[in-house]
Write a structure and sequence with these properties.
- About 60% of the residues lie in helices and about 10% in strands.
- Helix 1 crosses helix 5, helix 2 crosses helix 4 and helix 3 packs across helix 4.
- The model has no long low-confidence stretch (mean pLDDT about 90).
- The protein has a three-stranded antiparallel sheet.
- The N and C termini lie far apart (about 45 Å).
- The chain is mainly alpha-helical.
- Strand 2 and strand 3 form a beta hairpin.
- The chain contains six helices and three strands, in the order ααβααββαα.
């Protein structure tokens, strides 16, 4: 039997716990009320105006069922608006609001600080290698996920 610290799944889960805690601490301290998933969704909509919820789910690797709740909360906060699509009556297009843009600009220093804190135990070269290997491992397993990352 091997120690949990030799198991990538355990280490990935621990790093996710730490990353989420750091994100929340930095964002809360800066006076913002966004979760990591809400931030990812808001950023994706800002970068891809008028995308539908299914495309958004793929862009941030989030399951299509749960993305509705994330979008609902961002709409309630006045950060996104949802419009019926002209191309597909069943779909909703998403747009970031002026307030959503203001939040993204304002929150960015806290998000950047969180990223630095997450990697603070590594040298810059180690952090670069870690990120490259993490991207490589994620790409290799992407299709095994319940919510694979998809291009726009």
């Amino acid at each position: 039997m091997t120690d949990n610290n030799d198991k990538p799944g355990h280490l990935a889960r621990r790093f996710q716990q730490i990353a989420a805690a750091i994100f929340h601490a930095e964002v809360d301290e800066a006076g913002y009320d966004l979760t990591p998933v809400q931030y990812a969704a808001l950023t994706a909509v800002a970068m891809h105006p008028a995308i539908d919820q299914a495309t958004l789910a793929g862009l941030i690797a989030y399951d299509r069922t749960t993305i509705t709740g994330v979008v609902d909360r961002l709409v309630q906060k006045g950060l996104l608006v949802r419009h019926a699509s002209n191309r597909d009556r069943r779909a909703h297009e998403l747009q970031i609001t002026d307030e959503g843009r203001r939040i993204l600009v304002g929150i960015e220093p806290a998000v950047e600080a969180a990223q630095r804190i997450m990697l603070r135990g590594l040298t810059p070269k180690e952090a670069e290698t870690f990120m490259r290997l993490l991207r490589k491992a994620i790409a290799a397993g992407n299709e095994l996920s319940r919510a694979p990352l998809r291009d726009a």
